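Researcher: Next sequence.
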Amino acid sequence: MSSSSSPRPSDGGSARHLSRRRLLQLGLAGSAVVGAGAAGSWLLGDGLGARAAAVVDPHAPIVGATETSRYSTGRVVKRTLHAAPASIDLGGSTTRTSAFNDQVPGPELRLNVGDELRVRLVNGLPDPTTVHWHGSALRNDMDGVPDLTMSPVAPGGHFDYSFIAPDPGTYWYHPHVGVQLDTGLQGALIVEDPNEKAYYDDEVVLVLDDWTDGMGEAPADILARLGRDGMDMGGMDMDGMDMDMEGMMTTEAEPLGSDTGDVAYPAHVINGQLPQAPVTVDARPGRRIRFRLINAGSDTAYRFAIGGHRLTVTHADGFEVRPVEVDTLILGMGERYDVVVTTADGVFPIVAVPEGKDDPAGAAVLKTSSGSAPVSSARPRELSGRMLAYADLAPVDALALPSRTPDRELDVTLQMIDGGRRWYINGAGYGDNDPLDVRAGERVRLNLRNQTMMFHPMHLHGHTFALAGSAGSGVRKDTVNVLPMQSLPVDLEAVNPGQWLLHCHNTYHHELGMMAVLSYLA
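Model: Next structure:
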């Protein structure tokens, strides 16, 4: 199979199929859809809901041409992911959930930049599913968004994903159907650069996750409850609150604000293990360990620290930054950081504390000599030390987005509706809000404006963006925490044609409407 091919679901469903809701959003309803023409787009007529320009089809020739132009090693890495119900031992507590290949996290997928990854997804779940390759600027038809880039894979069916890994870094994979992410369905995707200069001795991947499936309230029940009852407002009605409170909602003690989530979780795990039976990282004193940190949680930001150690941050969302040393950092849902620590002599707690929640923390252990393991409730002093801020991060010169006046600015207004029963972008929920139109080659500024009392980890598929203005000095990311009642501009280069989701990575917020489409026009 060539790198520009477009596999289709084996159950006979068309990967071109779009629901009526998606047709309406993309402006295709009532129009004359001619198919992929010479320009590689769907041509729109003047019917109801039609837009005045062509929309780039995820399966258009331009998408394949973009893939073909990527650097390729010619090497192919083949894997199979079997999504199915599973009984998982979280460390003394067995729970019934869904998982890839009967393990949590799912199998680590590792390859070199420029390799082609071919993954067969086999759906053993009772419901349709997909796989989204979070953070990778891959080809659009492999992005795994149901009814936007592909049809969801039916129970008993399979789908062959195939794409070139365009950038080295720490990424991950998960479904993009309903609240399936809030089960055990997630895993690490690591893209290595064989030419990277060695600066560490060992490497450890840590996947942080909030856990309720099979232990507490089921994710589907949580979604139904939030859609029915909304969030606890404490007697306050925040709908329509203006921006006069900008900057008043966060403090040094509460950097994400006082309300950081809608769900209380009975457990938090690191690499699928409860604190009672923690993952142990064995090393020798004086070793430099690269920790790849992934927040796979659905409703929880984590404050991360390692007792007795400082963290040298080297990468943000997979992209290299100028090293900065801190004691602790916060990962919003979907964010990743790579940090290097030089190991001390002893046994030390690794902790992921749910930010702003009373839930029990996730915990692991770093062990370099004999000694007793720290108690699972250990809270190292580093948690209250110097915290990483976006303003501390700067890209290395090779990855800095060149200075350029935006060709297009788009407002992305984040809104809570009806007491948290709905979450909107630009005045409407997903399927009803207008697409964010761009054209290939443009420099685009997205003005992320949070008009709610909660932070939102906003994630853009298929691209990285640079934080504009004073925040981050242009650090490249694909997921960014937009703070309560504050605004954050980000700049991107429109160089990956197709239809791309932009959404809050709180699973329940995006399922209640906080998603939109960055739509390339021909």
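Model: Residues 219-229 form the longest helix (11 residues). Confidence is low (pLDDT under 50) at residues 1-49, 234-248.
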